[in-house]
Design a protein that fits this description.
The chain is α/β, with parallel strands linked by helices. The protein folds into four domains: 154 residues, P-loop containing nucleotide triphosphate hydrolases (Rossmann fold); 62 residues, Helicase, Ruva Protein, domain 3 (Orthogonal Bundle); 122 residues, Up-down Bundle (Zinc Finger, Delta Prime, domain 3), CATH 1.20.272.10; 113 residues, GMP Synthetase, Chain A, domain 3, CATH 3.30.300.180. The chain is 55% helix and 9% strand. The protein has 22 helices and eight strands. It has a five-stranded parallel beta sheet, covered by helices on one side. Strands 6-7-8 form a three-stranded mixed beta sheet. Helix 5 packs parallel to helix 6. The protein is elongated. The protein starts with 9 loop residues before the first helix and ends in a 7-residue tail after the last helix. The N terminus and C terminus are likely disordered. The protein binds zinc ion. Zinc ion binds next to helix 4. InterPro entries: AAA+_ATPase, ClpA/B, DNA_pol3_clamp-load_cplx_C, DNA_pol_III_gamma-3, DNA_pol_III_sug/sutau_N, DNA_Rep/Repair_Clamp_Loader, HLD_clamp_pol_III_gamma_tau, P-loop_NTPase. GO terms for molecular function: ATP binding; DNA binding; DNA-directed DNA polymerase activity; metal ion binding. This is DNA polymerase III subunit gamma/tau. Belongs to the DnaX/STICHEL family.
Length: 493
Amino acid sequence: MDYDEMSYRILALKYRPQTFDEIWAQDHIKETLKRAIEQNKIGHSYLFAGPRGVGKTTTARILAKSLCCVKGPTINPCNECKTCQEIAASRNMDVLEIDGASNRRIEEIRELRENIKYLPTSARYKIYIIDEVHMLTTEAFNALLKTLEEPPKNVVFILATTAPHKVPGTILSRCQRFDFRKATVDEISNRLAWLTKKENIKITPEALYAIARRADGAIRDAEVILDQLWAFCPEGITKESVYELLGIVPSSVFEEYAELLASSDERGLVEFIDKIFASGYDTIEFFAGLIEYFRSLAMLRLGFDAQTLELLPDEFTRRTKASQRFDSETLLIIISTLCSTEEQIKRSLLPKILLEVVSLKLAKAMKSSKANSPNLNNHQDESLARIFKDLLSHLRTKKLPLASRLELATPQKLEGDTLYIQFPKNHSLNRDHFEANKSLAEAILSELIKRPAKIVSELKETALDEQGKSNPQKAENEQLKKIGKVFEYEEVE
Ligand SMILES: [Zn+2]
């Protein structure tokens, strides 16, 4: 975030969770901690690991209050006693918050070890919250380790870090570790919806979602963004104002690009890129958004749903439609090409030309892949081919001769519950055999499409068996057909 965070922290501070129940999206952690407090099984050292802005320090303070509250130890600190209030304001003598980044030298840890010898002045426990603990120097870690090895009674260490892999194993092994996760877009937008209702902030659901997505799992960031938007748009926050303030490129821009690419419109792409650069979008922002967009198309082709992809219903519909303009392989080529260009774009003095070149290359690739595969843009055909392939491979394990007969046929369409297939004209005998024994194939197909299915076959009018001579796959099928003849007796039912 490049704007001044500090001046927009009013909401984040006002709604900072004060009890375990108010902690958002970290259920597994708060339940475990509550149980430990209730059963009086407090450890000597905890490690809170996780990305920034997900509530590590907040949870550490609540744990400190729970242990030190005059009515405690309790899972519901009163938040009213002197101790609770001092801890909330970070000025309790017995709950020390140390920033690992600025107190990373051995001297500071030595001082801490000296300090530990003294009993808590007023509270029940002495609690050390060391933030960004991975920043400590090796010497400081060694000094800390000695303390963790022989912890004085009633001392609790809470080490917080965004980079647990940088914390020495010797320290990790002495801590009870909690991994804080990023909040989902849904969780963040629910939190923001609750908060805006409390504060009477007018905001549209799309705007909430856009903020939640930008916050990338950090609830605190989302609250800071909301605060800033509220200051700029006191009369009401819309999706457009979020996009404008945060420099987010709207989805429709990527849709337009994808459409031009799908139709290999080279001239259109160049004009589009010119328009993008003229409209003042941040190049890197645009490029990252483009990669993200094509990734979502690829995920949609794999059958992921709107919730998993964190898409709004409208976006889901539009992108599903767009995804059908590309086959999975082409999408992978587009994504990997864009990804490998990202670094160059960031460094380039001529990002526009680079983007033009990449786009034209992709458009050319689209053109040639379309020429190679007439079904490129047809989702229906692709899934038909897949079902037919699955049917064959299942059938092969059950009845090879029947499978090798079916292999001679070409799937035409899957309409409702009926699969239509076509045998070459000169394979009428094979077709007859298939027809006589097709119930097994129909049973397998029913399982595959999860509803009762039929297979209807016909003979193709023009003979295509000439192809068999040049096509190794067909030649192999001929071979299988012969094998089928040998096993003929198997097919008698
Ligand atoms: Zn209290």
